[in-house]
Amino acid sequence: MKAVTWHGKHDLRVSDVPEPGIVNPHDAIIRVTMTAICGTDLHLYNGFMPGMRAGDIIGHEFMGDVVAVGKACERVQVGDRVAVMCAIACGRCWFCRHQQHVGCDNTNPSTSQLALELAFGHSGAALYGFSHLYGGYAGGQAEYVRVPFADVGCLAVPPEISDEQAIFLGDIFPTGFQAADNCDIQPGDTIAVFGAGPVGQMAIRSALLLGADRVIAIDAVPARLKMAAEAGAVIVDESHGGLLSRLDDLTGGRGPDACIDAVGMEAHGGGIQNTYDRVKQALRLENDRPIALREAVMACRKFGTISVAGVYSGFIDKFPMGAAFNKGLTFKMGQTQFHKYAPDLLRRVQLRHVDPSFVITHRVSLMDLPRAYELFNAKADGCVKVVARP
Fold it and tell me: Could you read off the pLDDT tens digit of each residue along the chain, which spans 390 residues?
């Protein structure tokens, strides 16, 4: 079969690889009907995520048709059309039984766990196509995928919902929704979203769905700002400078009630601080560039909430802990509880509360995905979100 494989920084190839088979009786095999590039995939593309090996199949946002099931599968059947949660969870451990599937104890091999604990802190569930620190499972930018614990990780999609509406239920839609849900939005609240990429776009719409009075979208890419404005957000082009004073002006000097960091480890920004972070990260003296996170801390009102949806991989420097302490900020973060949120979000799509396909700007074939990564990474040609059909 054909699959997108990783061979180093900026080196992705469409390769011929063996088709997956049933390994565990809880497995299913999915024929992929649609896959996507996630912003988190860029951390692999740009060489910032350790634990990758040449030839790894990447991609964790995909859906398709079930073509084979293991003998222990009870809910998933051949012929089902499913969205697949990007985190792999057993459904039986303490964390899974408490609706905290991304903390699953049983899907991330112990060989990866020691490295995770030494470098990045204790982790949980494995992820598709996202380095051997997270299980080393083959990803979804392929014609077929093995789905472990398929009864837990597959969400049946009704026929009236299109692939383009359903695919994001496994990743960016729950991620954006959890980011907004973490803000504990109250009537009259103003929510600032740092980063209007795909997750930020979902966070903007989710905050409005949850009752935010106003959402401020912060980015520097025209296509992203236009999309955010179409959702009803107040847009702030950060390339014009003076971000904190502009947020003060928009909130009467108090600051947003909650700030969502939808950027993470590859944040951009102007000035000496951005140069510092880039140099430290390039020399592997710092894992991440926490520019957006620092700005969120400084912008948020006293006793507000910082919701972190952007991925961070390890250590950051010059974090304004004093400001966070003196403001009494609450931080909420972590891998998204995809399994918890996806069924409710599917119902919202069915009820036409939201159509997640709005975020798609580019549609390509599997063979074209390496080129699409270049566009997405460069934010060229108005590229906000790419989907592909094998």
Answer: 999 999 999 999 999 999 999 999 999 999 999 999 999 999 999 998 888 999 999 999 999 999 999 999 999 999 999 999 999 999 999 999 999 999 999 998 754 555 555 555 556 899 999 988 888 999 999 999 999 999 999 999 999 999 999 999 999 999 999 999 999 999 999 999 999 999 999 999 999 999 999 999 999 999 999 999 999 999 999 999 899 999 999 999 999 999 999 998 777 765 656 666 766 666 565 677 888 899 999 999 999 999 999 988 777 888 899 999 999 999 999 999 999 999 999 999 999 999 999 999 999 999 999 999 999 999 999 999 999 999
Where in the sequence is the domain holding 18, given as residue range(s)? 2-171+336-389
283 φ, ψ (degrees, to nearest 5): -85, 5
User: Cα–Cα distance between 386 and 365 in angstroms, integer?
Assistant: 10
Q: Are 144 and 104 in contact (CB under 8 A)?
A: no
291-299 vs 271-282: helix crossing angle, rounded to 10:
140
- The rounded radius of gyration (Å) of the Cα atoms in the chain is 20
Let me know whether 97 and 67 are in one domain. yes
Contacts of 118 (CB under 8 A, 6+ apart): none
- Of 312, 333, 354, which residue sits at a domain end? 333
- For residue 92, report the phi and psi dihedrals to the nearest 5 degrees: -125, -20
Global pTM value: 0.94
Cα distance between residue 227 and residue 176, in whole Å: 15
Q: How many domains does one find in the chain?
A: 2
Distances (CA, A) of 381 to 29, 275, 305, 367, 372: 35, 26, 35, 19, 10
